[in-house]
Amino acid sequence: MGLFYVNAKELVVINITFSQAILAFIGAMGIPSAVMGFIVWRLEKRISKQEEKIEEREKAREDLMLLQVQNTRAAVALAEATARAVKRIPDAKCNGDMDAALEYAADIKHKQKDFLAEQGIRALWE
After folding, report:
1. Exposure string (b/e) for 65-78, b if CB count within 10 Å is 16 or more?
2. Do 10 and 2 meet the contact criterion of CB atoms below 8 Å apart?
3. Largest CB tally within 10 Å, which of 27, 34, 68, 80?
């Protein structure tokens, strides 16, 4: 097989075999493919690192939400205990506001518990 190269003054013939031509073609096409493969690999690696960071942040957000719910429950329990203790003091002169506050706290506590139970059930089916 002969390849022709035209120079300004003369025609040059370069003789290469078919296998040499195939190897030259594969080599010429393989280098850009290898470079693109490396670039894609680096991008995939960077994307996976970002996804891991996002998952860590989401986990931390869930943990924070759980701690906030637990903190709210603890505060309500403390407030209820304090209110009940104050009501038992004979000289405290509690009015109806204390009873209303206790009822309100119990109502909100039950609504929160129901909401979280509903969210838990929904999460099972997602």
Report:
1. eeeeeeeeeeeeee
2. no
3. 80
Structure tokens at 89: 């003091």
pLDDT-derived band at 88, boundaries 50, 70, 90: confident
Q: For position 50, what pLDDT does the model report?
A: 94
| Phi, psi of 13, rounded to the nearest 5 degrees | -110, 125
Tell me the torsion sign for CA atoms 51, 54, 58, 63: positive
C-alpha distance across the termini of the chain, in Å? 65
Separation CA 121–CA 6 (nearest Å): 78
State the pTM of this model.
Answer: 0.56
